[in-house]
Each structure stands twice: as C-alpha cells, then as structure tokens.
Design a protein that fits this description.
Elements: H1 3-11, H2 17-32, E1 40-44, H3 48-52, E2 60-65, E3 77-81, H4 89-92, E4 96-102, H5 111-124, E5 125-133, E6 139-140, E7 145-146, H6 153-162, H7 173-181, H8 188-194, E8 199-205, E9 208-217
Parallel strand pairs: 1-2, 1-4, 2-3, 4-5
Antiparallel strand pairs: 5-9, 6-7, 8-9
Helix pairs in contact: 6-7
Protein name: Class I SAM-dependent methyltransferase
Organism: Actinoplanes aureus
Keywords: Methyltransferase, Transferase
Amino acid sequence: MGWNSIRTRLVGEDDSWSARRRAERWAWFTRSFPDLDQMTVVDLGGVPHTWMQSPVHPKHVHVLNIEPLDSDVPDWIETDYADACDLPTAIASRRYDLVFSNSVLEHVGGHERRMRFAENVHKLAGAHWVQTPYRYFPLEPHWVAPGMQFLPVRARATLAQRWPLAHVRSAGVKDALDGVLWTELIDRTQMRYYFPDSHILNERLAGLTKSIIAVKKG
C-alpha cells in the first residue's frame, strides 16, 4: 500500500478515519444541544460547508474567519472576515445563543491571543462548544506524525516538508515554519484556565484523549 493510499484512508474527505471521527464528534455536539435548530450560533474560525452538510441547521449561523469564505450560502448563514481574537465592534456587541469553534484555538497565536479568544467566547454567548486537539495524544493531528508536537521547531519544519501523511505538505522552509509556529497544541490545564466555568470533555480514541472540548450549556 502506497503513502497516498494510507493518507486517504487516514485523512480523506469521505470514509476516512478522520472523517468518521469528525462525524462522531458532530453527533456528540448536536446531542449536547438538542435545541440547536432554534439557536443563533457564531462559529469562530469555521466554514459554511460544515453547517450546510449538517442534518441539523441552526436558526441562524454567523461564520467568522480570517480566510476568504464562500459568499454563496443559504439565507440562514452569514459570513464575515474577522479575527476571533480581535473582533470588530459591530460583531463584538452582538449576542448569540451559542459559540462554536472546532480546531481553531491551537492556531490563534500564543497564550495572550488564546486569552482574548476565550474572552470573546464568554462575551458572545452564554453557551459554547470549543474543541481543540489534545497536546498529549501520540499523533500530531495536522501532519499525522507521531510525537511531532514535542520536537524542536527546526525538526518540526523539516518534517512538515517531508512527512508523506501530512494533510498539506509544506512548499518550502518559510511555509513549513509558518505552519509549525502557528500550531500550538494545548493540554487540559490550559483549557480549564481559559474556560474555568465549562465542563471539559475528552474525545477518546483507543482509550487515549484525542481532543478536548470546553462545553457550557448556558
């Protein structure tokens, strides 16, 4: 079996291991908020496609991202260019039923910005679901590389250029450094610090915590 076949089985879009895990997490999320179809949701760092393919559609979803988003969306989805750590006043002053964020907290850029991200989560809604990969799971999830998160920066950048199972292989040294420096996995203690009034859930695989989720139901 070649590397491409292995990568497709692990992180492909349809019936891969990663896709199945995402589907299971999404089912867990919708069970946690049974009134989701009646809620207004702000998605920090997400994409409209996530919600469009969901079997349960909230009353309204506001998707914020610093990357360009597709503007061809249903009328119950709203999109904006916005930094979740530094929201414009027009968005920061709004109130929603639920804040949702999936695999974003590890990319915002260090402790100070994670603090600002968490502060915005608390301001925007009384309920939230904030998921991030767990630092001490043996497999680094972005590059699908064992123990990569514990290596020195230079070694991580080298691996980012060469590891055949990466979601997207880095094009060069600068690209690789950008990727690894903007990816900082956190642990339970940090998650509890940012979300002290939340219940911290453990998403497990083979008995090991794969990701951690801060949940507050309002």
